Amino acid sequence: MKPTLQDVADAVGVSRSTVSNAYSRPDQLSAALRARILDAAGRLGYPGPNPTARSLRRGVVGAVGVLFTSRLSYAFTDPFAVRFLAGVGEAVERHGSNLLLVPLPAERARVRAAIDNAAVDGFCVYCAGDEDWALNAIRARGLPYVTTAPRADAGPTDRYVGIDERAAARSIADHVAALGHRRVALLGESVLPQAAAGPLRLAGPADAPHPTTRGRLTGFAEAFAAVGVEWSAVTVLNATDNSRAAGAAALSAALAGDRPPTAVLACSDVLALGALDALARAGERLAHPVSVTGFDDIAEAASAGLTTVRQPAEEKGRLAAALLLEPPADPADGHVLLPTDLVVRTSTGPAPRS
């Protein structure tokens, strides 16, 4: 039989609670007594109290879950996600807690199980699309959460840290429009679920299911509508995931047409870098230069000369975790919009003359 906490207590001649304190509340014991208990536990082969059982008794797990609808590898390979998680990790570490990554299954029937089985005290919900179905599962557990998507219907107890996606996208699209571009393509990841790579028909930005993509497409559309470019004249390009290869594949199809765009506005820097790759491969086959913009300002954007929107990834992660671990006294302080900046580099220039 495996040694138990009682075996250690008997060996040392103390109570079970004293042995438990040697692990969970060492400040309650003298250094000499704690050393005797741990020495006896080592001789007996007792590994210590079960952490799950201890957490259940305390009612606190000591861990924050980061929930996102993507492959687990995305958390380690996407540049913006890496920076966001670094911010979360910094705040969680400072608080003395741990971090659990919880990729959300695509099948909604499995969502409840994924959330119910996560041993956490609350969730940071990162880029989880139209997330009500996930939030409902969290609410059913009675756990707090913070999202990275500002919500117009946010109540006083809801907490979020995000940016004004529409306004940020409008700023970069205004820049492109001011350069004279009117034949433009908008490039996003999974603009419509299950759509193939390349051009697709989208009745309007409101039909994009993911709130981040929807907000950015709306900002782009408003800027071009202001200079007389109707939505029907805009090319929407679908990338099957947020990777350079997917961005390149989506744009390549549009470049093969008779009237390729003079500018490509991507919903992320990673997709924009893929667009630049496709343009480099097309080379002299193109009749004119094509301007490209991104979104996020990841490290590679600067070296590529990419015009983009800068948003504070680490700060977003830090604040999201802080709101979860240390809820503000004033509920209004739980609604946080972070600033963004337009960063103009060499990837944008004047539209070619007709």
TrEMBL record:
The keyword Transcription applies. Transmembrane segments: none annotated. Pfam families: LacI, Peripla_BP_3. One of its GO terms (molecular function) is DNA-binding transcription factor activity. Residues 3-58 form the HTH lacI-type domain. InterPro entries: HTH_LacI (IPR000843), LacI/GalR-like_sensor (IPR046335), Lambda_DNA-bd_dom_sf (IPR010982), Peripla_BP_I (IPR028082). Keywords: DNA-binding, Transcription, Transcription regulation. This is Transcriptional regulator, LacI family.
